[in-house]
Amino acid sequence: METVILTRNLHKTFYTGEVPVHALKGVDLEVAEGEFIVILGPSGSGKSTLLNILGGMDSPTEGEFVFRGTPLQNMTKRELTMFRREAVGFIFQFYNLMPNLTAYENVLLATEITDNPLSADMVLSEIGLADRKEHFPAQLSGGQQQRVAIARAIAKNPDVLLCDEPTGALDYETGKQVLNYLQNINREMNKTLIVITHNAAIGGMADRVVYIRDGRIDKVEKNENPVTADEVSW
What predicted TM-score, i.e. pTM, was given to this entire model? Predict the structure, then answer.
């Protein structure tokens, strides 16, 4: 399978005043097209920093980040903006929907910034919200709002979906439903899926689990038989 994401010796240093904080300390990661990767680690381990770099929202202090053969670490702000628009879909713990737009309009908005979008109606139907598309976020449950956020990310037709604790604000049953949609998107649409979480149970769904600690990859485990969302228990 084609390599979509490649990082080599990735470092990221922040400063609190004059004190350096080393968030990433030499991360090497390779992700193939269509893989489902879960990145596990405790708070402060560097997983969110890594996701931000992979999504073009931040740049490494040192090292390489290559997307489909193109180095990104030296891109201009405009080039990174185009990368985020075309190549990456983001799904966050908090839904970040526009409150004054309907579910349909929230999804449609995403299709207007990319060259090869999917139909907003089709994506909402696939995610099980065709009958709720004219509702505003305040009229939707938390799980429904997260599904709108997933539909918005998918409608861009991106190469990669990056998910930051996508079930963190949801109850157990609703969280399983959201995980089921994400897994179906990965399997049926062959979208590369990277999920960061502190919930080890979700790792059972992935093709590979990457454990990160103190800014470094601690170990990588391959799942020969990933479980379904319905089999996840935490």
Answer: 0.93
